[in-house]
Specification:
- It is built from one helix and six strands, in the order ββαββββ.
- The longest helix is centred in the first third of the chain and has 21 residues, at about 15-35.
- The chain has one helix spanning about 15-35; strands at about 1-5, 10, 65, 70, 75-80, 85.
- β3 (about 65) and β4 (about 70) form a beta hairpin.
- By secondary structure, the chain is an alpha+beta fold.
- The strands form three sheets. It has a two-stranded antiparallel ribbon.
- The two termini are about 15 Å apart.
Length: about 90
């Protein structure tokens, strides 16, 4: 899982779903603290999550992503730096 927050890129990789959820929650708290310490505002309405996956035989695991106690919605496509990126990388 890769999280983009303006210029902050975070990569979270884990095969176990429970471990991924735990690691992701920790990383999101760290991001919130970093933004707070640097006097930056997180626009939760423009924040999206995306799950990239290779295996097409089963749906990808989409862990719960919380940012400032708001659940971040998963999007099948996002626009990032002028490029449209889809969850299947087409």
């Amino acid at each position: 899982m890769i999280l983009y927050a303006d210029d902050r890129n975070v990569l979270v990789v884990e095969r176990n779903e429970e471990a991924l959820q735990s690691k992701l929650s920790l990383v999101m708290k760290q991001l919130e603290n970093w933004f707070l310490k640097n006097d930056l505002f997180i626009n939760t309405t423009k924040t999206a999550a995306m799950s990239f996956h290779l295996c097409r035989s089963k749906p990808p695991f989409k862990p719960r992503v919380l940012l400032r106690n708001t659940e971040v919605k998963y999007m099948p496509e996002v626009k990032f730096l002028g490029m449209r990126i889809t969850e299947n990388l087409s």
